[in-house]
Amino acid sequence: MATMKDVAHLAGVGVGTVSRVINNGQVKASTRQKVEEAIAQLNYEPDNYARGLKLQKTFVVALILPTVWHPFYGEFAYHVENELAKLGYKCMICNSDGRSDRELEYIKMMQQNKVDGIIALTYSDIDPYITSALPFVSVDRHFSNEAVSVSADNMGAGSLAAETLVTKGCQNIAYIGGKAKYPTEVGKRQLGFTEKSEKLGVANTFLLMSEPIHDMEGQIERFFKENPTLDGIFAINDFMALDIIRVLNHMGKSVPEDVQIIGCDGIRMAAERPIVVSTIRQPLEQMAITSVTSLIGLMNKEDVPTYNVLPISYIEGSSTKNSS
Question: Which residues, at least 6 apart from 181, have a Cβ–Cβ distance to it below 8 Å?
Fold first, then answer.
């Protein structure tokens, strides 16, 4: 197997220069190119374990997800892992199943130097364990201290959904979603929807179902029976939108002829398949890149923006009128 000395000899540089290239240190662009070409030619594989001991790093980042089954989390994990790989890090997927005790175990892993940092989508009560000294990036949730958070513009998502429904002719609209136990950025979707509806002078209401949601379809059906004139719905996510469509079909109502529906997230049920419902798309890839970039900055003790809000966009599907 090739050694670092072999790489240095072939590139015509010192071993220290090769080490700086491998560890993303500062070297001339021309020197970096020579070293990288030598690495490729010799098929040199750095000893990451020894490298980690020397630098006191594991080059492993933990990604905490509530579940691995949901396409939204799966797509986000895909982009996070890709971005980390570009920077020489491995991604450890941690499925918390929404349990705070599991999430705390992962945080302890970091405190025991088993991972270098954490990116987390968490909806549990772990606020007391998040400190500015912990390389931790939260997605879709802003903690009370200086921890870094990354999210889509959820307020803007609600506003855009309301405006789009009204533009498409809806006169009586509603927001339907779950009510999380702890505040998250996702909750701002309802706020943006309500504020925009009132500004436009359109009748609006909402259905908030406490999580974990029981008898969801029954609650949705009762809500429509209590509000028979509803003709436009903004759902908290795309899966909720699909559930609402199923309930309306059972009630004999047609989508989008009788009721137009907009979801949120912009997820695909599978790769290369079109998005089914009209939706407000979150920039998942950019959220992943920002999360990774922010975490690397924290690990390098750099100043990193603590509150990152990324732009959303509307995607036309089959659940609103005038679909292409």
Answer: 123, 125, 211
Tokens of 104: 């705390």
Q: How confident is the model over 216-270, as pLDDT tens digits?
A: 999 999 999 999 999 999 999 999 999 999 999 999 999 999 999 999 998 765 4
Same domain, 118 and 266: no
- One domain, residues 137 and 67: yes
Pair 238, 266: CB distance under 8 Å:
yes
Q: How would residue 293 be classed by pLDDT, with cut points 50, 70 and 90?
A: very high
3-class secondary structure per residue, 223-260? HHHHCCCCCEEEECCHHHHHHHHHHHHHCCCCCCCCCE
CATH number of the CATH domain containing 224? 3.40.50.2300
Domain with 78, as residue range(s), is: 56-152+284-312
Q: Does pLDDT of 271 surpass 60?
A: no
Q: Which of 27, 46, 65 is a domain's end point?
A: 46
Rounded-to-integer distance, Cα 192 and Cα 321, Å: 22
Which CA distances in Å does 258 have to 11, 41, 163, 320? 70, 65, 18, 10
Q: Would strands 313-315 and 278-281 be described as parallel, antiparallel, or unpaired? A: antiparallel
Domain tally for the chain? Answer: 3
Q: Which residues pair with 90 in a beta bridge?
A: 60
Asked whether residue 128 falls in the same domain as residue 164, the answer is no
* 174 and 256, same domain (yes or no): yes
pLDDT in tens, 177-203: 998 887 889 999 999 999 999 999 999
Closest-CA residue to 224 (of 200, 253, 262, 196): 253
Task: Report pTM.
Answer: 0.80
